[in-house]
Design a protein that fits this description.
There is one protein chain. By secondary structure, the protein is of the alpha/beta class. The chain folds into two domains: 120 residues, 3-Layer(aba) Sandwich (D-Maltodextrin-Binding Protein, domain 2), CATH 3.40.190; 155 residues, D-Maltodextrin-Binding Protein, domain 2, CATH 3.40.190. 45% of the residues lie in helices and 17% in strands. Strands 1, 2, 3, 4, 5, 6, 7, 8, 9 and 10 form a ten-stranded mixed sheet that branches. It is globular, with a radius of gyration of 24 Å. This is ABC transporter substrate-binding protein. It holds the Pfam family SBP_bac_8.
Length: 349
Amino acid sequence: MVNLTRRAFGIGAASVALGALSARMAAAQDVTIVVNGSGGSLAEVLKKLFEDPFTEQTGIKVRATAPVSLPKLKAMVESGNVEWDLTELNGDDVVLATKEGWLEEIDYSIVDPENELPEMAKLPTAMVRASYSTVLGFRTDRFPEDKQPKTWADFWDVENFPGPRSLENSPKCNLEFALLADGVPLDELYPLDVDRAFAKLDEIKDHIPVWWDNGAQHVQLLVDGEVNMTSCWNGRITPLKSEGRPVEISWAGGALLLSYLGIPKGAKHPTEAMQFMKFRMDPVASAEFVKVMPYPGFVPGMMELLEPEFVATLPTAAENAEQQFAFNSSWWAENLEEVQNRWNEWLLI
């Protein structure tokens, strides 16, 4: 009869566990998940704070790709040649992709096993990654301190707030801004009065020398002084202010939007993708992320790690959020094609 001591049994059990862990790590080293995102400086921050540590902990490698593209997601899923395991999505993309069956169901027992995320952050096919705002940004050196633009009505007021300005080359948010400039209350924007919005856009069109296409462009327009004011993403202006640039934003009438993570239907590594989604919920790393890129999500415990003064600068801070409208992704998903076609034609007139 073999007599196993408790110590020997403990050593044996530890060896088995270590062996199993090593086997899992070895298997994981053969897996690379492809994560589709926005690219640029955001990709560098994600790699440092999430992707490299995830690989170090699990052995699962992460390869980032860019840019985000709903047409490419559609083409991959419908052809059965799915390259991505995880992709960023905006709100109306989630609505459309879910309706068309281009996204996998998310198993929240993997992503959020402690059930800590608020329910509004957990859609069946997508998880909220971040929140951000499109707001009015302006150069403080182009306007007297007591007469700086604060509202979209000011943006449209070329007599009292002169000079070139810029807007995104997209109907999304611009129709809302036009309606706000025309006096529509925040809580009465939707459903959008498209005809009224385009009529108001007619008034400002000749004062827009450049319709920006990406976040880097609108920042450059402001920094170079090519425009006095522009619609902009809140996170692009914060670093400029830290550098001492003469720029500021107004939260009044801003569009508060959500960004999501979803798994394409037919992804090669959906389980590993969900493990990475769970890893993205680390509160310490998430707090460090928000310090660099002020686009907060709903990671439990994250806000408590940030200074109150900094939290007050984020789009979800109560004082800022109450001045904004919640972008209606469902309305845009239903109406985007028609409105986009009209926008494209309008720009050519």
